[in-house]
Amino acid sequence: MDFDGPDLYENEIDDLEMQVMRYKPEGIDELVRNTKFTKKELQIMYRGFKQECPTGLVNEDAFKEIYAQFFPQGDSSAYAHYVFNVFDADHNGTISFEEFVIGLSVLSRGSLNEKLMWAFKLYDINGDGYITKEEMLDIVKAICDMMGKYADPPISENAPGDRVEGVFQKMDKNRDGVVTIDEFMETCKNDENITKSMSVFDTIL
C-alpha cells in the first residue's frame, strides 16, 4: 500500500517554506505605516526575530521560554500565556513578525490611550469586552508569581486579592460587577496610583 510518503513529506516542506516566505519583510513599508518603527529598525528586529524563530512564527511554548529567561526568580508561565494571547491577534496559536512588532510598537511608543487599550485586552482574558474581578485577579496573581522573591515590596499571600478588590471597586463605576473599556480608561487616567499599579506590565515586556 502506497501512502505517498515522500510526496507528503515534500508537500509539508513546501508548506513550511511558503509559511516562512509569508513572513519575509516584503511588506515592510506597510509595517512602517502601521507601527511607530522606522524601516531600519524593522529590518534589524526582523533579523533578530528570524534568528530566534527560523520559521518566522513563535508558538506559546517558545514565548514562555523567552519570558522564563528574563524572570528566573519567579514563575512567568501564566503571565506569558496572557501576554501571548494579546500579541496573537488572529488567535491562531502563533505570533507572526507582524503581530509581534505591532504589539511592541504600542507598548514601547504608543500613546497613553493605545497602551491602556492594550492593557484592557490583557485583563479581558476571554475577550468579551468586559473585565471581571476574577480576570483581574488572575492577571495580578500571574504578575506576582512572575516577580517572585524580588517583588518590591514583598508580596504577601493575601496581597493580590486585597489589591484587586480596591482597584476593581474604583473602576466599576456603575457597580454592575464588570469593568468596561470606558470605565477602565477613565479610572486609569484619573487615578495616579491605579495607573502606576496597572502599568507594571509596561516594565516587564
Give the DSSP E fraction (strand runs of 2 or more residues): under 5%
Low-confidence stretches: 1-6, 15-23
Largest sheet, if any? 2 strands, antiparallel
Q: What's the mean pLDDT score?
A: 83
Rg (CA only) = 20 Å
Head-to-tail CA distance between termini:
52 Å
For the largest sheet, list the strands in their spatial order.
1-2
Please count the beta strands (DSSP E, at least 2 residues each): 4
| Secondary-structure-derived class | mainly alpha
Shape: globular
> What fraction, in percent, of the residue positions are helical?
55-70%
* H/E element sequence: HHHEHHEHHEHHEHH
Helix count from the secondary structure assignment:
11
Write the layout of secondary structure elements.
Elements: H1 5-22, H2 28-34, H3 39-52, E1 57-59, H4 60-70, H5 77-87, E2 94-96, H6 97-109, H7 112-123, E3 131-132, H8 133-147, H9 159-171, E4 178-179, H10 181-190, H11 192-198
Antiparallel strand pairs: 1-2, 3-4
Helix pairs in contact: 4-5, 5-7, 5-8, 7-10, 8-9, 10-11
